[in-house]
Amino acid sequence: MRTLAIRIKLEETLELHKITKNALAREAKVRPNLIYDMCEGKTRRVDLDTLSKIIDTLSQLTGEALAITNILEYTRDEKITADQ
Q1: Which CATH number fits domain 2-74: 3.40.640.10, 3.40.50.300, 1.10.260.40, 3.40.50.2300?
Q2: pLDDT tens digits, residue range 49-80?
Q3: Which of 3, 13, 68, 77 is deepest in the core (most CB within 10 A)?
């Protein structure tokens, strides 16, 4: 096992802006399973183009300039255990 220092906080962002996972997937044109897996912390790799689509779409849906920090968080002191 290895430890990850990156936490996906997409679900918190969606809840804050009252956006459903399905709406985000549909508007970003990504698989709904990807959004669900990200929200449940099951994702270990995210393609940068996909991440960019998600951030751009969230910015459009919220009318706010969102950034990668709205989706990902570096948790230096709180390591998250993940399977290899």
Answers
A1: 1.10.260.40
A2: 999 999 999 999 999 999 999 999 998 765 55
A3: 13
Residue 75: alpha-carbon gap to chain centroid: 15
Residue type, 69: T
Q: How many CB atoms lie within 10 A of CB 59?
A: 14
Which whole-number Å values give the CA distances from 43 to 38, 39, 60, 63, 74, in the listed order?
5, 8, 24, 27, 15
Q: How many CB atoms lie within 10 A of CB 34?
A: 19
